[in-house]
Write a structure and sequence with these properties.
9-stranded mixed beta sheet; Spore Coat Polysaccharide Biosynthesis Protein SpsA, Chain A; 18% strand; alpha/beta
């Protein structure tokens, strides 16, 4: 059998030193790596000049001419993978992701051993290989499957419901079936929505031996507006709540009602009533505007040119059959 090939893809913005470290770690992978796509999201810190100076034939650079946001950057990266390259898998990560040298080989090996898999992602640590889990990259195990890991601690992977775009890999066939990441999300939540789409037809797994380090500034929980103390970050939560509602809507009406209710009863209520909440009035406006916009937000899913095939049946139908 011909060895499988992988395109790694990084979206970067003004983090040149971290980008250099991330790229070096990717190029040091022991097996399967064929290309590296780098989407430069209008960086102004010398990233453009650095990328233009590289002469490695494996590297494909895309300089954006407008601010695409993280979501638009990953949309463009997967589009380039689908339209310009012929590799079997695409492996996505931020510019502050430092994978271990064998991280990719473990992802591919598990996928080849389990061809029914839709996506695989690494176990992500924060700051260093010995650091705590990176909380923003921790995804929930699928209900009614996690109990077996209490019995068999030698399981090579844990089934998860979705994944962030920090060391996640999926196949060309999957891109053809579900399309591209939703660029209109701009920032936050595009990874969850996209891997939810994958998991609707094939399952996702966190491969335990595949390790990546996420060198984000802080190890914070995702989307915690109540605890947010940086006024300059609040604009991001407009997208968080809008995107969260659409992601839930695409799962089911029941899930949308649940997510909307949690946002009102937990986030809005805590922001209103909890003592010493920073920027209280501003946060209340962000939550209500974001939720309202989410009810009407429904951008079309795009496909890479020449890369589209019919979906297989949704697994949710099979789940409902089992529950009936």
């Amino acid at each position: 059998m011909t060895e499988k090939t992988v395109t790694a893809a990084i979206v970067t913005y003004n983090r040149l030193e971290l980008l250099k470290e991330s790229l070096a770690a990717i190029l040091a992978q022991t097996k399967y790596l064929s290309h590296v796509i780098i989407v430069n999201n209008m960086s102004t810190d010398g990233t453009t000049e650095y990328l233009d100076s590289l002469n490695d034939e494996r590297i494909v650079v895309y300089h954006a001419t407008e601010n695409l946001g993280g979501a638009g950057g990953f949309n463009q990266a997967v589009r380039l993978f689908g339209e310009q390259l012929q590799d079997d898998f695409v492996w996505l990560m931020d510019d502050d992701t430092i994978p271990e040298p064998d991280a990719l080989s473990h992802l591919v090996a598990f996928t080849l051993d389990h061809p029914e898999v839709g996506f695989v992602n690494s176990q992500v640590r924060w700051g260093s290989i010995d650091g705590n889990p990176s909380w923003m990259n921790v995804t929930a195990p699928r209900a009614f499957t996690w109990q077996r890991y209490l019995i068999d601690t030698e399981e090579p992977a844990v089934e998860v419901v979705n994944s962030t775009f920090v060391s996640v890999m999926f196949s060309r066939e999957m891109v053809a079936m579900i399309g591209l990441p939703q660029k209109e999300y701009f920032i936050w939540g595009d990874d969850m929505e996209y891997t939810n789409r994958i998991a609707d037809i094939k399952r996702g797994y966190m491969v335990m031996n595949s390790i990546a380090v996420h060198k984000s500034k802080e190890n914070t929980k995702p989307g915690d507006i109540v605890a947010e103390v940086d006024d300059s970050r609040l604009w991001r939560y407009n997208f968080e709540y809008r995107n969260r509602i659409l992601t839930a809507r695409r799962i089911s009406r029941k899930e949308m009602i649940k997510v909307f209710s949690v946002a009102i009863l937990r986030d809005l209520r805590k922001t209103l009533l909890k003592k010493n909440v920073a920027f209280r009035a501003k946060k209340l406006g962000v939550i209500t505007r974001g939720l309202w916009r989410g009810l009407f937000f429904n951008p079309t899913i795009e496909y890479a040119e020449g890369l589209r095939q019919q979906k297989i049946k949704s697994l949710r139908g099979a789940e409902m059959d089992l529950l009936d």
